[in-house]
# Entry
Amino acid sequence: MERTSTVLQADRSTLFLVDLEYTVIGDSVNLASRLEGLTKNHPYKILINDRIYEQVKDQFVCGLLGEEYVKGKAQAVRVYGVPDPLA
# Structure
């Protein structure tokens, strides 16, 4: 599958701690977080944008929910819902 964007993952812990903390940053991570926040407004637990839809449309049945404006994006994002495979 082709790469859709670049993200940065970094270890935020020190060498002396046993528990490691990681953070991931990037535009894709921010968009994923915004889409996750939209799940409370839709009957789907998984929401994806059009770029991901184009990659998975032959493997999953997805429903177009419309366009949503999300923080950090100047233009509306086309949003698709992926039905829960366990439901």
